[in-house]
Amino acid sequence: MKIVYPIIISKTSDQTVPYFVSIPDIEGMTQGKDIDDAIQMARDYIGLNIIDRQDNNLDVPNSNYTLPSAENGNVVTLVDVDIDEYRRKNDFKTIKKTLTIPNYLNKLGKDNNINFSELLTTALKKELNV
């Protein structure tokens, strides 16, 4: 799922974070140290926001892609986020899975201090080419 939202980047008087970013379609705000960082922070904010909405079965707002007019030297642009790719790279929330393995493998694994969760995660990544 790819999404695109307009953002507004405004220059601030704060030297530490001189750019403020508004994301109107999701009522979001972030900041950046330069224009590139501001766009990256907006992309990150959007990705986290959409993943959270999806995980909580909330609607993902559509955008009409209408760019607000640039005023007072603001930069107005569109930011795209591939949510599926973003989730793969940033969703490290763990979940508990119940699985069944033969008793002898369980015993051997315990005897050899195998971390079953780590092993399963590694095997799934290899199998799924992730």
UniProtKB/TrEMBL annotation:
InterPro entries, sorted: HicB-like, TTHA1013/TTHA0281-like
Pfam families xref list: HicB_lk_antitox
Residue ranges constituting the HicB-like antitoxin of toxin-antitoxin system domain according to the UniProt record: 5-95
Protein name per its UniProtKB record: HicB-like antitoxin of toxin-antitoxin system domain-containing protein
Taxonomic source organism: Companilactobacillus kimchii DSM 13961 = JCM 10707
Lineage of source species: Bacteria, Bacillati, Bacillota, Bacilli, Lactobacillales
